[in-house]
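To close the chapter, one final illustration. This time we ask the reader to focus less on the individual chains and more on the assembly as a whole: which components sit near each other, and how the overall shape emerges from the parts.
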Amino acid sequence: EAGVVQSPRYKIIEKKQPVAFWCNPISGHNTLYWYRQNLGQGPELLIRYENEEAVDDSQLPKDRFSAERLKGVDSTLKIQPAELGDSAVYLCASSSRLQSYEQYFGPGTRLTVT
Amino acid sequence: RKEVEQDPGPFNVPEGATVAFNCTYSNSASQSFFWYRQDCRKEPKLLMSVYSSGNEDGRFTAQLNRASQYISLLIRDSKLSDSATYLCVVNTNAGKSTFGDGTTLTVKP
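The assembled structure is written out below.
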């Protein structure tokens, strides 16, 4: 079974530029998460989807971040414009309620904003 | 105060040692609990779920104390390959997940 797929793996952009990350979850997983992880810290939830509905986006900085999961499968996270402090690893995870929300992570996108 | 707190360590232990990590949580509505392992520059990977009755998987034992709101992970007979950061995760019944910042373990020969 294929795992969570993310692209790109690495991205270097200048501040004020836009950037987008893509995630394809494990087949059959209805719940999709976007996390941001800074060095030395645990993943911080940005947004959680149940199918196509965003059920928890309280930690998403909505002035510059947006996300979508239009057909309830793959998802895109966008930052526009990027700031220096957005440099981090962006992780996507998916889970199924039938498996007690055990989360499976993709390899992440390492973003560097210069 | 963070919702989920872990001792950041680092824990430096010799091969063969037994080491234990604790994780405390503040949300009494928490329903499910997990330990994840994260290697340097890799994604977190599920190590084990934590059940109310406690559970064991080989050299790893996880326990939950709901009254005191903490979970623990015990690693027996440590191997060099156990060196990693161990993250605890706490979920509410609604599926909200909160990660701790992790405890770093280094096992030395």
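DSSP finds no helices and eleven strands in chain B. Chain B has a mean pLDDT of 94. With these observations in hand, you are ready for the problems at the end of the chapter.
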